[in-house]
Design goal:
39 residues, mainly alpha
Length: 39
Amino acid sequence: TTIARVAAAGANIFVAGSAIYGKDNYAAEIRKLKTLARF
């Protein structure tokens, strides 16, 4: 994903499509993205 790079560049609003949808555990995927966004 690109979330870590855009967070490091200063983004603070993110849109997640295929990173979440279709996954078995949405909550776990969101936690992963939140962790990646905290560079």
